[in-house]
Design a protein that fits this description.
The complex is a heterodimer of chains A (375) and B (328). Chain A has 16 helices and four strands. Chain A has two domains: 2-41 and 174-367, no CATH class; 49-154, 3-Layer(aba) Sandwich (D-Maltodextrin-Binding Protein, domain 2). Chain A is mostly helical. Chain B is an alpha/beta fold. Chain B has two domains: 16-237, Rossmann fold, CATH 3.40.50.300; 243-319, Alpha-Beta Plaits. Chain B has eleven helices and 14 strands. In chain B, the strands form three sheets. A six-stranded mixed sheet of chain B has the order 6-7-8-3-9-10, sandwiched between helices. A four-stranded antiparallel sheet of chain B has the order 2-1-4-5, with helices on one face. In chain B, α3 packs across α4 (122-136) and α3 packs parallel to α5. Classes of the chains: A mainly alpha (375), B alpha/beta (328).
Amino acid sequence: MFLHELKYELIVNLRAKDLILWLMLFPIVLGILFKVAFGSIYENSLFSSIPAAVVMSGENDVFRNVVDSVSGEDSPLLDVRYAEEEEALELLENDEVSGIIYAGDEVTLTVAGKGMQETILKAFIEQYTVYETIIEDTIKNDPSKLQAVISALSDDVSACTETPVTRGNTDQFIQYFYNLIAMVAIFGSITGLHITENNQANMSPLGARKNCSPTPKSVSLSVALIGSFAAQAVCLIICVTFLAFVLKVDFGDRLPLVYLASVIGGCMGVAMGFFVGSISVLPHEAKLAINMSVSMVLCFLSGLMIGNIKGMIAETVPWFNDINPVAIISDCFYCLNLYSDLGRFSVKVISMVIYIFVFYALGVILSRRKKYASI
Amino acid sequence: MAAVKKESGCKLMKNTVVKITDLVKRYGDLVALDHLDIGISEGEVFGLLGPNGSGKTTTINCLLSLLAFDKGEIEIFGKKMNPTAYDIKKDIGIIMQNVAVFDELTVYENIDYFCGLYITDKVQRKQYVNEAVQFVGLEDFLKFRPKKLSGGLLRRLNIACGIAHKPKLIILDEPTVAVDPQSRNRILEGIEELNRGGTTVIYTSHYMEEVEQICTRIAIMDKGHKIAEGTKDELKRMIRNTETVTIEIIGLTEEVKAKIAGLPHVYQTNFDGTKLTVCCSGGKHNLIRILGVLQENELSFGRVYSELPTLNDVFLEITGKALRDKGE
């Protein structure tokens, strides 16, 4: 009887149109939109070479070599065009270059604006001038140290040592994908609502018919929950797989744990819907509306729409992020990505498991062995 | 209101399948079931007849332990009914007023699913499902989803889901609402066939013709009360009317009408200008006597009808209102 019911529960769930729409198609479309939107932001923020005109007003092979080296790399600092002064001025006037470098006995710069590119050009020329002066002084005063000086100038010297705090992906936009998965997980509450709708006699003729059968309600509810958990797991596995392998979202090197957290989060969503549905005072439509509204608000507060909301909540009401189911799910991925130890991740997973048991227990208490006041 | 023999208390019969005693159900101030007593014997097709809101569906929901009630007792197969009485439930088939099937499953899958809630043996279940499919005539629609079925076919599927496990007691709550005449006849024939096989049937409806056609015993309900119970003949005998004669006639004078009203067994006459209606109580040759009066007075007439009382007449005489509103 159990397996018979489970078989049909799975078929019903996987053929349900709202499940396919909200838990499969919607996250895929939203994921693509995120990828496209963030992709263009990345492109806009990439460093591009600074166009500059170089007017050789005398022989300066050293400078020419330096300019050639910084404009010939894979990611060149400068995009240099050698020109006569007249042509260079025309290029500057037409905004085709950001500045004109005059290279003779002395290296000077002419710019037409005060932007980032002009500032970088100025810094480049100043650094070259300083290095040139140091080398000339060394040749003049102590030529034996020339090699040591050149070597020292070639090294980047900094008083700070860069120590990475994480081996994970620190991309600021990754949290939107975390929240997307969390949203899919919490939308499992839609299938959770169907559980009560199909098993409570006062909510549907189907529920009434099932209540008249000799199958104990606890069995029907358990089967329905397991079936919904399984269907929700399938949806989340598809979602994470699509994001990780099709959209190439970098979830770090612990992908199996990302799948695990997603599936547990999905089970929490189903259990939440089951609990809400078991509160039999309201009609199904009202429950659905409340469920969707609450889910969307929780998603908003976890940063699905505006990234820094979660940070603001962490500063003002930090406990809320610990009880917001959507925030708990997205924090799981965050912990997995940023922290090498699994301590924080485990706490979040345990929180989700507790939520599942509490929602399930409350739902069963509200649903079992019930006679209804009205049908 | 005519003198009606009102039942008090539940008749205790041999092989009683259902026994409802002193059942009271209130919705706030509204009394939906008012001290209802019903007894149903094995092999009966028991009809619950009444207008919408009379308490038929509430009775069924209480019977199935879906609805909490304020007072009374319900026994099925000699055992007290409650939500966890699974040994009772396994022998009951329910066909709800609203179609209760999964939109996501095909016709075959739906029947198999509901049958599987009662029958665990796969081989037996397969046989039962195939028999149910044949019984309702859905062989050509096995792979159809419910949304692709017409209203009549959907009702048949609903019935198949309720009877596939071969229950001893089948409860049908207005199964023919919004069904075309062809499907309705098929459904009624099916119920009679199930009953011939020994199944006890409880049938609720506000269509008196259906109840008259298939029910061996009938309880008429109104406003939560059982106002009469018996076979259709017993019920008809409870009322004064035994025959209603209708004659199309023009130019009927008050004098002739008075003569007809004075005939033996005639207790009511009505003439609307074209049609004379005469209600008779008892007597064997009422029509001949009425036509005789018309011929004596040299009045010509058109079509003539003589109708025996219906359950609607019973309901009308007891409550002063018709079973169904016009157009229903």
